[in-house]
Design brief:
The chain is of the alpha+beta class. The chain has one domain: Oxidoreductase, molybdopterin-binding domain (Sulfite Oxidase, Chain A, domain 2). The protein has helices at residues 11-36, 72-77, 90-94, 119-122, 152-158, 195-199, 251-255, 298-301; strands spanning 59-60, 104-109, 115-118, 129-136, 141-151, 167-172, 190-194, 204-209, 212-213, 223-225, 238-244, 279-282, 289-290. Strands 1, 4, 5, 8, 9, 10, 12 and 13 form an eight-stranded mixed sheet that branches. The chain starts with 10 loop residues before the first helix and ends in a 13-residue tail after the last helix. The protein binds the ligand Nc1nc2c(c(=O)[nH]1)N[C@H]1C(S)=C(S)[C@@H](COP(=O)(O)O)O[C@H]1N2 and molybdenum atom. The ligand Nc1nc2c(c(=O)[nH]1)N[C@H]1C(S)=C(S)[C@@H](COP(=O)(O)O)O[C@H]1N2 binds at residues 1, 79-83, 135, 137, 172, 189, 218-219, 231-232, 234-237.
Length: 314
């Protein structure tokens, strides 16, 4: 995500800067691999990283893409988690300060059985699956990430959404003692989905990646993943989920409503006011590739938006 503040990098410089960072990372990895004598990218985990807790057993999912996966190292060091800083490397440096146990998630609002879940109970709600999804940031870079998680619908069903519930709001953790105090966005970071989007089988709560517990910088202990929407919809480190009758406010929409709409479906035909959304650069690659409608998930989700003007509802 990019914001209109003088301290931020002008949109025109984003691609070169990202490219530079990526090339530097590529060279570092290439150097490391010469020493280690092994390839360190494209799905081959980096042996040097600290041993994280493995999650198993994991069911595979028919929704997974077979495209090559973005290196673990890139997935966990090229992050947006503005509470921990706006540079891509900041979350990996700073998010360790966040304690992810004990942790609870309140599910409340228009529910017959509102309930607060302890994170360890939440993890047992449904069988864990590996979901290899494309993640497409509004900044026009993308990744392929093997998430571990389960459908959000499994959690929502537990609380009996009332008939009047039409939207779901996600509220994330904010702690000024370990996160930025700069009002980059209205903290806590919030996001929202329509209830039918939230119940869609592609929408998951992720608790891990690459078969391991989610690193803090990726939104531990639980984050949303909605693969047909821009990355900013995937709220990290969720503490509350609220069912609403009316469309809830979202952090990015509040900060720049003309740039970030409520829907934020990946759409190559609707440009961001300051740059094109027609193509993207997959992290780890130098050449751009065309962006696909609904991030390539049109077959599964296009029907949710039948009859809607997606230029208006961007
Ligand atoms: N709480 C919180 N969640 C967040 C963000 C954030 O700044 N704070 N950034 C969003 C954006 S813009 C993107 S692209 C994704 C990035 O997820 P990743 O770092 O795991 O790739 O997280 C999203 N979730
Ligand atoms: Mo993003």
């Amino acid at each position: 995500m990019l914001i209109k503040r003088p301290a931020d990098i002008p949109a025109s410089e984003i691609t070169p800067r990202d490219l530079f960072d990526d090339r530097r990372r590529f060279l570092q990895q290439a150097g490391a691999s010469l020493i280690a004598g092994a390839a360190l990218w494209h799905g081959v985990p980096d042996n040097a990283r600290a041993a994280a807790t493995r999650l198993s057993p994991l069911a595979s999912s028919p929704f997974s893409t077979t495209e090559s996966q973005t290196a673990y190292k890139s997935v966990t060091t090229y992050n947006n988690f503005y509470e921990f800083g706006t540079d891509k490397e900041d979350p990996a440096r700073n998010a360790d300060k966040m304690a992810v146990r004990p942790w609870t998630v309140r599910v409340e609002g228009l529910a017959g059985k509102p309930r607060t879940f302890d994170i360890d109970d939440l993890l047992k709600l449904a069988p864990l699956e590996e979901r290899i999804y494309r993640l497409r940031c509004v900044e026009a870079w993308s990744m392929v990430v093997p998430w571990v998680g389960f459908p959000l619908s499994a959690l929502l069903k537990q609380v009996d959404p009332l008939g009047s519930a039409k939207y779901v709001e996600f509220v994330t953790h904010y702690d000024a003692s370990i996160m930025t105090r700069r009002q980059i966005l209205n903290w806590p970071y919030t996001e929202g989905l329509r209830l039918d989007e939230a119940m869609h089988p592609l929408t998951i709560l992720a608790v891990g990646l690459y078969g391991e517990v989610l690193p803090n910088q990726n939104g531990a202990p639980v984050r949303l993943v909605v693969p047909w929407k821009y990355g900013f919809k995937s709220a990290k480190s969720i503490v509350a989920i609220r069912l609403h009758e009316k469309q809830p406010a979202t952090a990015w929409n509040q900060s720049a409503p003309q740039e970030y709409g409520f829907y934020s479906n990946v759409n190559p035909e609707v440009d961001h006011p300051r740059w094109s959304q027609a193509s993207e650069r997959r992290i780890g690659e130098l050449r751009k590739r065309p962006t696909l409608m609904f991030n390539g998930y049109a077959e599964q989700v296009a029907s949710l938006y039948q009859g809607m003007d997606l230029r208006k509802h961007y």
